Amino acid sequence: MSTLDPARLIAWDRELRAVHARLRDSLQVAREAVDDEADGTTGGASPSRELLLICTGFCAALDGHHRGEDDVVFPGLLSAAPELREVVSRLVRDHAMLSHLLGELQRVVDAGHAAGVHDTAALHRHLDGIDAVMETHFRYEEKRLLPALADLVLDATPRSALGPLAPDGDVTG
Fold first, then answer.
1. Is 60 exceeded by the pLDDT of residue 79?
2. Is the pLDDT at 3 greater than 60, yes or no?
3. Which residue of 5, 15, 63, 97 has the smallest Cβ count within 10 Å?
4. Is 171 contained in some domain?
5. By the 8 A CB rule, do 23 and 65 touch?
6. Is this model's pTM higher than 0.85 or not?
7. 58: domain range?
């Protein structure tokens, strides 16, 4: 972990909202990749490989975001605001559910890649389930944590705290 200048503050509330927006966009890209494969419009790339890369990337980004929160953000937040323990416990449970759903999506993507054809309806069902849980989770998290995150000081970079879709270096509020 890097050591930040104590005079620098990262606007964790803004960073969280930005990462959530990027994850929503990534889910939409995954949906479009499923549709493109079904339509045969992947722009010259192998449809199965394109879908595999996009869905695997989305799964890794969402999982990485949640690991960063669990390992970096939540411990720092609970240290500063122990009254949020129940909120954080609920969010950690959501992370476990989303991890399970991502694993199931990855299983369907991998099976389709191996077979050379994907079950578009099954992929959309998995993406719909992830979308529903993810959106509910994000809204609850933002409603309950953004005020505390606005003042949070962590000795971490946005990427280590919020996952691979956060900026790579230090950013200031």
1. yes
2. no
3. 5
4. no
5. yes
6. yes
7. 12-162
Residue 5 has pLDDT above 60, yes or no: no
In a domain, 170, yes or no: no
Written as six digits, the tokens of 60 are: 């890794």
Find the angle CA(156)-CA(137)-CA(67) to the nearest 5 degrees: 35
Q: What angle do CA 34, 119, 129 make, to 5 degrees?
A: 70
Residue 172 within a domain: no
The 10 Å Cβ neighbour count of residue 59 is 21
Cβ(11)–Cβ(173) below 8 Å: yes
Per-residue confidence (pLDDT) for residue 40, from 0 to 100: 67
Choose among 4, 50, 23, 13: nearest CA to 127: 23
Q: Is the pLDDT of residue 19 over 50?
A: yes
Residue 90 located in a structural domain: yes
Which CATH number belongs to the domain containing residue 16 in this structure? 1.20.120.520
Model pLDDT, residue 173: 46
What would the mean pLDDT of 123-136 be, rounded to a whole number? Answer: 97
- Which tokens in the block code for residue 104? 């199931």
Taking the CA of residue 131 as centre, how many other CA atoms within 13 Å lie in the half-sphere pointing to its CB?
14
Number of domains in the chain: 1
